[in-house]
């Protein structure tokens, strides 16, 4: 049985679906890199049910914010934090009252080497690696979270010369995938699916070691009158979308 909140979200989506399914539209969405894979799966399911096509552009939250400020015609912004959608609302670039938290992300330390990262993250203190990848903390919330973890461990100065920065969390993981860095701080969603980690080795960073990664979505001004965009935002709240998010390790 659905909980009251889930039932309301589902009914809201069905109402929007009924009003928008008559005409299939394209929906331009800007999404933070950590949520790209889940959104692709959610969008495929949404498109199959509605006929609407979701056109996705992915990048660092800060980079996408700049694109939106410069007039990029996105209808929806799916952020990796709460403050960036709030800034868009403050600058009157998004529809008042449309922002909501769709998930809480988790940070992990990951290596493609199945034996390199231990379950307590002691590999960071041991220092037997040349490079540690993180996303740019100025533009990527997961990069900011990584710097918070290093500071709490007292390693930010010690490891400063070994850091390599990705423009976003996807590039950060690519550094580790390619061997350019032996390990890196990435989003759990990048290495976790169907309830379990994928290949490699991982340290699940304790949630108390960094500020909560609450992630908000918001309807942008160009989508204010777009029924299809509103239907997609409502679908993000549906039990079907939440189930996919949970498969990638996101918390409610």
TrEMBL record:
This protein's UniProt keywords: Metal-binding, Signal
InterPro entries (alphabetical): AvModA-like_subst-bd, ModA, ModA/WtpA
UniProt keyword Signal present: yes
Domain of life assignment: Bacteria
Signal peptide start-end: 1-24
CDD domains: PBP2_AvModA (cd13539)
Pfam annotation, one family: SBP_bac_11
Keyword DNA damage: no
Family under the similarity heading: Belongs to the bacterial solute-binding protein ModA family.
Protein name per the record: Molybdate ABC transporter substrate-binding protein
Gene giving rise to this polypeptide: modA
């Amino acid at each position: 049985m659905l909980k009251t909140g889930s039932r309301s979200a589902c009914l809201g989506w069905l109402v929007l679906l009924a009003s928008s399914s008559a005409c299939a539209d394209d929906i331009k969405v800007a999404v933070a890199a950590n949520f790209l894979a889940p959104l692709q799966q959610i969008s495929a399911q949404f498109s199959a049910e509605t006929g609407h096509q979701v056109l996705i552009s992915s990048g660092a939250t800060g980079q996408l914010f700049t694109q939106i400020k410069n007039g990029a015609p996105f209808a929806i912004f799916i952020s990796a934090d709460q403050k960036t959608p709030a800034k868009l609302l403050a600058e009157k670039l998004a529809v008042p009252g449309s922002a909501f938290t769709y998930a809480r992300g988790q940070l992990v330390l990951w290596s493609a080497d199945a034996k390199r990262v231990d379950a307590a993250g002691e590999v960071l203190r041991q220092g037997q690696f040349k490079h540690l990848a993180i996303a740019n903390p100025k533009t990527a919330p997961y990069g900011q979270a990584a710097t918070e973890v290093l500071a709490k461990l007292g390693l930010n100065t010690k490891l400063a010369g070994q850091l390599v920065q990705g423009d976003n969390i996807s590039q950060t993981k690519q550094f580790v995938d390619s061997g350019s860095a032996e390990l890196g701080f990435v989003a759990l969603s990048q290495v976790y699916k169907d309830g379990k980690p994928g290949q490699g080795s991982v340290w699940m960073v304790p949630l108390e070691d960094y500020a909560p990664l609450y992630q908000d979505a918001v309807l942008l001004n160009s989508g204010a009158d777009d029924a299809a965009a509103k239907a997609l935002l409502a679908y993000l709240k549906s039990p079907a979308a939440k189930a996919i998010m949970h498969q990638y390790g996101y918390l409610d």
